[in-house]
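Table 4 source record.
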Amino acid sequence: MRVEQLEEKAKEMRRLCMEMAYLARGEGAHVGPALSIMDIMTVLYFDVMNYRVDEPKWEGRDRFLLSKGHAVLGIYVPLVLSGLLSREEGSTFNQVKTKLAGHPSGKGMNGIEHPSGSLGHGLSVAGGMALASKLKGNPYNVYTLIGDGELDEGSIWEAVMFAARYKLGNLTAIIDVNGFKYGSTTDEFTTVDRIADKWRAFGWHVIEVDGNNVAQLKIALDKKQLTKDKPTCVVAKTVKGLGFSKACNNNDWHHVKMEKEDLDLALKELA
């Protein structure tokens, strides 16, 4: 897709995100974390990754794992818009007996490669998948999206060392640096500063971008950027809640039960 098309698709993604969040108003939804990653997810699903809607278990498909699982609308929305999930399934988000829970479980669903709830697991699993690709000689790529607050987890750094040790050039970790975690900013408690420098020190190929700039993301995530012997880390600086004025940089919208007036305002702003 051209940049202009991707920008329109990102708007459509945010509109559907808000509509699905409103459907889950009884249980609530993690709106802020999902909105911040929508540009990243748009470029991945509609410009970068290889997959087949009519053959969802195709062995050569690229894999995506959402490590920050609470931002689950960030993956459900592109799965619906790509056709890997139906609109009917999307309308059951966080409802009784739904497969589309508030964290991705993957049970009986296309497009969910691994469940995620507790933070810190996605990169380890993605590293295993990337190594399996190399061992089997099946050249698919693996992508995982990590939150900046999630970098406090020790398992992340074990996986960082593992991926560099095994030269997993087919692995890309994208870090959503929106500056917030549950209940606070990332700077208020233990956090990781100079993120790009640290990942470079561990032997990764690092690219820094504006994570809400589709043109920059399109270049950064282009497979031509991948290196043979180093995994890639895309440090994406984003704005939490981007796309809806009430949620923008407002941590009260980390998880909310939406009202109809909120939905109406969001759809007006995203028109």
